[in-house]
Amino acid sequence: MTDYQKAKEIQEKIERGDLMIAILDINKVNEMIDLYTRSGDSGNSAGWYELGMIYYKGIGVDQNAEKAVSYFKLAAELGYGIDAWIKYIRIAYFANLTSIPANDIIGLVRKLEKEDSSGELYLLKGYMLYQGYAYKENLEASLLAHQESANKGNADAMFELCIYYTQGIGAEQDVQKALDWCIKAAENNNARAIYNLGAYYATGYETIPKDTNKAIEYYTKAANLGHGKAAGQLAAMYIMGEEVDKDEEKAKMFYKLAFENDFDVDIFFDSLDLEEIDI
Q1: Cα(180)–Cα(63) distance, integer angstroms
Q2: Residue 173 and residue 178: Cα distance in Å, rounded?
Q3: Relative to the CA of 127, which of 18, 113, 144, 223 has its CA 20 to 30 Å away?
Q4: What pTM value is reported for the model?
Q5: Exposed e or buried b for every residue in 44-55, given b needs 16+ CB within 10 A?
Q6: 38 burial via Cβ count (<10 Å: 0-12, 13-18, 19+)
């Protein structure tokens, strides 16, 4: 068994919870890191990539953006592929790292964007142009970058365009364009877009008529894709039983799902003057 395979075996045990319940010795974390390091030093770019993921996600260690980007850079330079560079740029942006020169980020995006079939780099470029990270803030250019990403089929970019046209960011407000992009994003399984369609059908919005059955359909799909608030909405609907038949079992199920998806469902219920559900 190679160093990489040994490290991967330890990582899988940590990810399934063995460390949390003390089945796995804490010293195994350092052993995993040492094994991945040896694998990377021997020329295996995947060893560096996995170390990047460990510090990105906090697998057995505290999350550390600086360490994560350093390992993703090593993996990319060793030939891992564009995904390592995308992780490098994504973490740098979301962690607002100032240790990486802006010109390095801009140069990487310019170099790699034609290779990116997923549209992820254009999406990140859109974020950075909006926030003024690496690039100077430019809302019109941000919208165009999201458009390029959406044209490559990126559902997150499609939903960003929905937001931009709803709020008039980088373009005139255009409710119909916003709805069109929301629908396209939902068709491509973007959970936020699916949730929004559920909310539109729950109350009626512009050209979308009120339709409780469709609202439940979209909320349910969004909840099953990990959207905590959609699950919370369903829990509230089923516990109140105002526009749907009251169903305490379904309410409990969706309440639990909202909690599992890191939504503050207790606070949400309190805002609706509803009692917490015992799960």
Answers
A1: 38
A2: 8
A3: 223
A4: 0.90
A5: bbbbbbbbbbbb
A6: middle
